[in-house]
Design a protein that fits this description.
mainly alpha
Length: about 500
Amino acid sequence: MAEDIVKTRKSGGSNLARATIRGVVWNYVSQFSGKFLVFISTIILAWLLTKSDFGIVGYALVVFNFLDILSDLGVGVALIYYRDEPKATQTAFWLGLGISLILAIAMWSLAPWIGQLLALNNEDGFDQQLVINLTRALSIIFPLESLRNVHSALLQKELAFSRKFIPDLARSMSKGLISIVFALLGFGAWSLVLGQIGGVIVSVFFFWRVMPWRPSFYFSPGMARPLLSYGSSMVAVSLLGTAIRNVDYLLIGPYLGAAALGVYTLAFRLPEFLILQTCTLIGKVIFPAYSKIRENEGSLSRAFLTTMSYVSMLTVPLGLGMALVAGPLIRTVFPDRWVEAIPVTRAIAIYALCLSLTYNIGDVYKAQGRPSVLTRLSLVNLVVLLPALWWAVAIAGDITVVAWTQTIVSLGYMALNFFVASRMLDVPVRKIIEALLPALMAGMMMAVTVSSALLVLSQGPSLLQLIGSVITGALTYTASLWWLQQDLVLQASHTLRAALVRR
């Protein structure tokens, strides 16, 4: 594996590698800072709000997320794929604005149906009108987001993630602060929705400040067709991906109630913050980088394997570690009413880890202009996942079973992804496994020592268990990875330093 990485550097892609890693770092600093603020605000809100508050807003946000995929019909992603087309940029802005207004009307109209669906298995005093009002308020976000989508896509296209830092951080900070203020004032579930809206407004302001591009009254029907053609295929992938990530929410709400959905939502926040968000950030940088070398299959294959190695080095300890320390972590930072989230968090951490190991694969297909491969794979995943989750919710009736069902299905999907990627990139499955093996082996060694540390500290306070197990796990994983694959660690460190130091 180390030889493959060296070959990648010698193939003339070192400048792109540095630009890509620099983009990942800036993007991660930006988004991690913002997500950390959201994470802190979530902890505070968990003390101020009820499980039902989280569940009600979480359900409305699921519906919003489905429609949000259609917000520009993938035109923003198409702008990255099409190199330098000024006409495309202007056309994309007006396309996005028009589509977002239609979606806002659609969500406003769907609000009563959402209220009825969520009221099916909730207590007699359930406020259905509140759900309707909250859903309609969220519809305002569609046209607001369309005002900054093109600006964000242009910065992403240029790998200018350092300039995205302020808008992204400002959105997360304002979202958390607004939610906390309104929660303290007694607004309940409304505080979460008002925070979402306020965060978007703030981000629009800052995106227009850092990105000098401005829309003009120009629209090209001829340019709209290729944008929509490429974008629509990406929308199909995104819709299926959103369905896969949110079908559990859609089923839990009506079958098990808002309180159960609130617990499940909170349990998902922790792995999402540490693992899935990391993959999303890397993907935003990797896709435009892959697009630049898509004509060279050899370079693309080597870059794919290198990225898998680096991603696994980061997400394997995070996923396994989160699963192991879920108990002391939740008991330390959340009130006692959230202890039901502990077994769910353990399962979702493993699910997030499996997902992280395949995240990079989709960006390769998109860069090759073959997103239809992703569509077919996602469709297969959904066909298996939907009945499995229905059984977990309707028959088993337990959110922990739902979480483990997600995990088991994701393991099968991961194996399928590896097989297809090996065929599409002409890379032996053995090479893919070799790319992941150092991190997985180091992760297993870490799991043994962390389990032992938790056993020794089991009679101590939760905070002591958390600190002791985290320190033990970090030292074990670092030492194990160095022992197993010193060359890979040195290469990753060298690449990171080269990326951060401009030459």
